[in-house]
């Protein structure tokens, strides 16, 4: 239950629905028990009792005599209306019974009506918070988590919590109240019989509770395994071309079937434990009814009152009592089912809260500054950084003046892309500092920092949406004219204008309807439209063919005019005009200068140029 206490704050915006649900559940519980009490007059008529015998309005004699008082009061009023007409009396009693059952079901509907808003509202808010948290968490978090597991948490786990919330409300309000009202009415009929109920129902409840002890663990295994095969599915869809190209379908089929096989085994164990609950609770309930029938029947047929003639318990009251006893079984079974639901939901809540309570290591400091412009330079002051144990950058220093283009080159793994990740604060440095206009980027809000920057990556990341919406990502209020201007600068308008729907053309999943060069030019157009003072290009042309590279390179040169640019380059031919080229090896600068200066040095850069020109 500790996890549900943490989830409970999601109920607060919907507390009025919770209160209305509780109110109508109270009425439902009262009328659920009252529905059996109004059967007594009907039983009296069927047992040939003469309602005309009650000629005076009865007086209330105390709680334990309430059943007698209620029975006589109803019979007295029926006698007043129907007189000696048994048929009319029967009609009145049936109308009374129907009215009570009608009200009971109306209150039941109203209780469920209001809880619907609470359940769906809580479901929506948890999912919204989970998605918000998913976007806020740093990139490092997702190097350790499976994407499919995140999808399982935001999907099935949240849905499980939603169902469990309903179970909890039944557990603490509706069903217990039904049992309490029913037991109160049972006490007014026979204290002795009710004591039997008090003895046997707790024993039954204890036996049922033993079944559910391992449900949380079993449910947790099921949900984790679901996250595993969803992650495998996501990876398969993303790498389908490679899987087919390497004829690896049998390998991935085997991995998926292994995961679903484990899911099947865990699900069977969980469902079999759940399935055991129903027959167990039903048999124990019938056992209680059997004991009551034996003892109650003995009171009706054998035991007598002090006069030696009158039965210890009236037959009509006994049948009413049995109806009330049966009325306890339904909520008792519902409570047992709800307790199982709580245990399953507890596992789901734990997984959801693990994400919601994860503290991001990259957060705005208190009173972080908002920076609106870029004036002088970007400084990397003796920074060191490591992803795991080994340092990727060691005592790295660099100055990027405003309006200049600085290119980072070197072998793969030398730390070039890490610089881009640190400047944009996707990661924080372990040592040293990064400053913009002499202000540490950790003192700036992440939103304003990244607002100063445009990013074009090696992988052209497009979303399954129109060209217009993909380009407008960084400037949602842009007009179509501004979008077209950005496309022209990026050399993308030449193919976009020929598409059937032009700006409304859907690019498909991950831009699958476009070529690599077209996707990259749209990525550049997106950065151009944002119009940031600082541009970061992370190997933006390395994945392109020669013709596409030429078009993209022209687009990049158009975009970098009058901007401060950090260019991470694989193909050295694309950065020869840079104001400064920084050559990196194993996280350190080995040489720097212009293209001509580095060629004259005849060191690492010259060797890299020569290798690429072969």
From TrEMBL:
Pfam families: ABC_membrane, ABC_tran. The keyword Nucleotide-binding applies. PROSITE patterns: ABC_TM1F, ABC_TRANSPORTER_1, ABC_TRANSPORTER_2. Keywords: ATP-binding, Membrane, Nucleotide-binding, Transmembrane, Transmembrane helix. The keyword Flavoprotein does not apply. Residues 19-344 form the ABC transmembrane type-1 domain. It is a multi-pass membrane protein. InterPro entries: AAA+_ATPase, ABC1_TM_dom, ABC1_TM_sf, ABC_transporter-like_ATP-bd, ABC_transporter-like_CS, P-loop_NTPase, Type_1_exporter. One of its GO terms (molecular function) is ATP binding. Residues 378-611 form the ABC transporter domain. The chain crosses the membrane at residues 20-43, 89-111, 171-189, 195-215, 283-301. It is found in: Cell membrane. Its main location: membrane. It comes from the Bacteria. PANTHER family: ATP-BINDING CASSETTE SUB-FAMILY B MEMBER 10, MITOCHONDRIAL (PTHR43394:SF1), ATP-DEPENDENT PERMEASE MDL1, MITOCHONDRIAL (PTHR43394). This is ABC transporter ATP-binding protein.
């Amino acid at each position: 239950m500790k996890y549900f206490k943490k989830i409970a704050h999601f109920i607060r915006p919907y507390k009025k629905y919770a209160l209305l649900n509780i109110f109508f559940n109270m009425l439902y519980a009262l009328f659920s028990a009252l529905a059996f009490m109004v059967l007594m007059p009907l039983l009296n008529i069927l047992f040939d009792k003469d309602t005309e015998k009650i000629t005076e309005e009865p007086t209330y004699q105390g709680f334990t005599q309430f059943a007698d008082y209620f029975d006589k009061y109803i019979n007295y009023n029926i006698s007043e209306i129907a007189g000696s007409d048994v048929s009319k009396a029967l009609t009145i009693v049936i109308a009374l019974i129907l009215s009570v059952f009608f009200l009971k079901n109306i209150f039941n509907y109203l209780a469920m009506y209001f809880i619907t808003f609470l359940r769906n509202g809580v479901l929506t808010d948890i999912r919204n918070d989970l998605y918000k948290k998913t976007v806020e968490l740093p990139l490092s978090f997702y190097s350790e988590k499976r994407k499919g597991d995140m999808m399982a948490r935001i999907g099935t786990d949240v849905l499980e919590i939603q169902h469990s919330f309903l179970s909890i409300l039944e557990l603490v309000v509706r069903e217990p109240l039904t049992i309490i009202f029913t037991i109160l009415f049972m006490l007014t009929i026979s204290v002795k019989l009710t004591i039997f109920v008090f003895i046997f129902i707790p024993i039954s409840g204890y036996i049922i509770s033993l079944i559910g002890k391992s449900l949380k663990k079993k449910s947790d295994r099921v949900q984790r395994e679901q996250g595993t095969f969803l992650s495998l599915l996501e990876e398969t869809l993303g790498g389908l071309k490679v899987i087919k190209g390497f004829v690896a379908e049998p390998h991935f089929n085997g991995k998926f079937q292994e995961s679903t096989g484990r899911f099947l085994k865990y699900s069977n164990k969980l469902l079999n434990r759940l399935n055991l609950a129903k027959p167990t609770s039903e048999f124990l309930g019938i056992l209680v009814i059997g004991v009551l029938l034996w003892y109650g029947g003995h009171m009706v047929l054998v035991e007598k009152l002090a006069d030696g003639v009158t039965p210890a318990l009236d037959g009509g009251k006994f049948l009413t009592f049995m109806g009330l006893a049966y009325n306890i079984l339904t909520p008792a079974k519902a409570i047992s089912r709800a307790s199982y639901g709580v245990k399953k939901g507890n596992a789901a809540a734990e997984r959801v809260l693990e994400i919601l309570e994860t503290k991001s290591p990259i957060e705005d400091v208190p009173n972080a500054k908002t920076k609106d412009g870029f004036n002088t330079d970007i400084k990397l002051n003796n920074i060191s950084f490591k992803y795991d144990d080994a340092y990727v950058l060691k005592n790295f220093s660099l100055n990027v003046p405003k309006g200049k283009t600085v290119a980072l080159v070197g072998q793969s793994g030398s730390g070039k892309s890490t610089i881009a990740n640190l400047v944009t604060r996707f990661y924080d440095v372990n040592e040293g500092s990064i400053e913009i206009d002499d202000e540490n980027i950790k003192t700036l809000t992440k939103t304003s920092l990244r607002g100063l920057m445009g990013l074009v990556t090696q992988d052209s990341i497009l979303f399954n949406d129109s060209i217009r919406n993909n380009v407008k990502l960084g400037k949602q209020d842009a007009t179509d004219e501004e979008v077209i201007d950005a496309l022209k600068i990026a050399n993308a308008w030449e193919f976009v204008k020929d598409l059937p729907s032009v700006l409304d053309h859907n690019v498909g999943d991950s831009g699958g309807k476009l070529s690599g060069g077209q996707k990259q030019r749209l990525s550049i157009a997106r950065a151009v439209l944002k119009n940031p003072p600082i541009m970061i290009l992370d190997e933006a042309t390395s994945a392109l063919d020669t013709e596409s590279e030429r078009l993209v390179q022209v687009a990049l040169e158009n975009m970098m005019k009058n901007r401060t640019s950090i260019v991470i380059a694989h193909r050295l031919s694309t950065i020869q005009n840079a104001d400064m080229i920084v050559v990196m090896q194993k996280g350190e600068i080995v040489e720097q200068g212009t293209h001509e200066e580095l060629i004259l040095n005849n060191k690492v850069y010259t060797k890299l140029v020569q290798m690429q020109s072969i």
